[in-house]
Amino acid sequence: MGRLGGICQQEVNARTTMLVIGDESVDEKSNKLRKAEELNRQSPGSVLIIPEEEFCRLAGLRSSESLKRFYHGRRQIRDLYPRIRDEHLRYLRKWDLIRPVIQTNSDSYYSFGDVIVVKRMHDELSQGMSFRGAVRAVLSGQDGQLSLDFNAIRSESQPAKVVLLDELNHESSKIIGGDQESPTKLAAQFFHEGSDLDEGPDADPERAAVSYRKALLLDPSLVPALVNLANIHYAQNQLVEAQALYERALTLEVDCFEAFFNLGNIHHDLGRYLKAVEYYREALRLQNAYADAHFYLAVTLEKMGLSADAKPHWKTYQQLEPEGEWVDLAREFSE
Fold it and tell me: Residue 36's domain spans which residues?
């Protein structure tokens, strides 16, 4: 109200000129509403009583119905997870495990990531665990393999990597003739050297990046080296550098699946959900059986409030990964 030039008050009194009421207020006949009606009996028309939906429409603000399409309201969460009470939600907020994206007079609206935390709490309570025990389980799980923090700036997904070159296999790319070796074959050898350094328990991303750069000096159009070098930047949260390399890969190979999927991850991490959806869909056009692409497309669509569009991808993820890490989550949101 203050942003629109008015003065907000906690109580209705003789100075009140407008009372905005939410859906709950109408049903409960709140004290504020009774007071406003009493003032209008004393001085007809002195207080404009207006529903919240109408006020939002007139003021150009997002209404509660609009918010429900993009976020999960407190009452909606309570309906989905009946073991979670209002005091539980307040406790989770106090410990900063969840935080409302938007707070109105009538409701609190939470992101998809917060719903995941609430679901985990509900599952623990359903198994007979105490609330404090459930909180401890969630807190410890946030650093473990079972965590899925959709609000974190870094994506939990592993970027798609190129392991082998189509043109040259590992054996044919070995140096066999010193100066007689072509730049293309030398580039392939440096690529495979980088690939060996880029995975496994003894992985060395810094040395791998050096090898990929050497490969690109010899063959600037070597798309696999571009993709894997971009992956290293992505893992180090250097999103600008990673994005530039993925986009360069697409200019050289218009159907590069890895570049499309990984660009989807970057745009998802930066909150550019429309672009993320666009890239994930392109990735699935090229490899429709890639489970992670279905999963992260579903997550992104849920964040956009497009649950109906997300459901087919939740279901496909279950079919492709029946024992997958997030199959229970996918089953929950596909119902």
Answer: 2-61
